C-alpha cells in the first residue's frame, strides 16, 4: 500500500486548498508553484502512486481526469489556443509527488515539449 501524500490531505480538505473541481472520482486545484499562467493539477481521489500502478479498474477515473481537464481549460479560457497535459512517472519522469496527477498547463505559448 502506497503512503499517502499531501494530495490526500488536500482531497479531504485537511489542508485548505481552494478546489476548482471535485466529484466522486477526481479533484482539481491550482499548482502551488505555477509554471504557466494556468497550472492546474487534476488527481484521482483514490491514491495511485505512479502511472505504473494504474489498473484496468482505474480506466473510468483516468478518463474522468481528461474530461475534467477539458472542462477546466474552457473555464480558464485556454481551450482554443491550446494547452498541455503532462503526467510524470518516477525519477526519470521528474515525479515529485507519489499520487498520480495530470498537470494542465496553458495561458501562453509553451514552447518545445522537452528541453534536452
Ligand atoms: P510532479 O513533479 O510530481 O509531476 O509535480 C508535483 C507538483 O505538485 C509540482 O508542480 C508542485 O508544485 C505541486 N505541489 C507540491 N506540493 C503541493 C501542495 O501542497 N499544493 C499544491 N497546490 N501543489 C503542490
Bound molecules: guanosine-5'-monophosphate
Q: How many strands, which pairing sense, and closed or not: the largest β-sheet?
A: 5 strands, antiparallel
Per the CATH scheme, the topology name is HIT family, subunit A
Radius of gyration: 14 Å
Broad shape: globular
Helix content: 10-25%
Strand proportion: 15-25%
Q: List unreliable stretches of 5+ residues.
A: none
Order of helix and strand elements from N to C terminus? HEEEHEHE
Features:
24% helix, alpha+beta, 3 helices, binds guanosine-5'-monophosphate, HIT family, subunit A, 116 residues
Give a structural overview.
This protein is an alpha+beta fold and 116 residues long. It has one domain: HIT-like (HIT family, subunit A), CATH 3.30.428. The protein is 24% helix and 22% strand. The chain has three helices and five strands, in the order H-E-E-E-H-E-H-E. It has helices at 6-11, 59-76, 90-93; strands spanning 19-22, 26-30, 38-44, 83-86, 102-106. It has a five-stranded antiparallel sheet, covered by helices on one side. A hairpin with a 7-residue loop joins strand 2 and strand 3 (38-44). The longest helix has 18 residues, at 59-76. The protein starts with 5 loop residues before the first helix and ends in a 10-residue tail after the last strand. The model has no long low-confidence stretch (mean pLDDT 97). Bound molecules: guanosine-5'-monophosphate (5GP). The site of guanosine-5'-monophosphate (5GP) has 13 residues, from strand 2.
Amino acid at each position: 500500500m502506497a503512503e499517502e501524500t499531501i494530495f490526500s490531505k488536500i482531497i479531504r480538505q485537511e489542508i485548505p486548498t481552494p478546489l476548482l473541481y471535485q466529484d466522486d472520482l477526481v479533484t482539481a486545484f491550482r499548482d502551488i508553484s505555477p509554471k504557466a499562467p494556468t497550472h492546474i493539477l487534476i488527481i484521482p481521489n483514490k491514491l495511485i502512486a505512479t502511472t505504473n500502478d494504474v489498473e484496468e479498474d482505474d480506466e473510468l477515473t483516468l478518463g474522468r481526469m481528461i474530461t475534467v481537464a477539458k472542462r477546466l481549460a474552457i473555464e480558464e479560457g485556454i481551450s482554443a489556443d491550446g494547452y498541455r497535459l503532462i503526467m510524470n512517472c518516477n525519477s526519470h519522469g521528474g515525479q515529485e509527488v507519489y499520487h498520480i496527477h495530470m498537470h494542465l498547463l496553458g495561458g501562453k505559448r509553451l514552447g518545445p515539449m522537452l528541453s534536452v
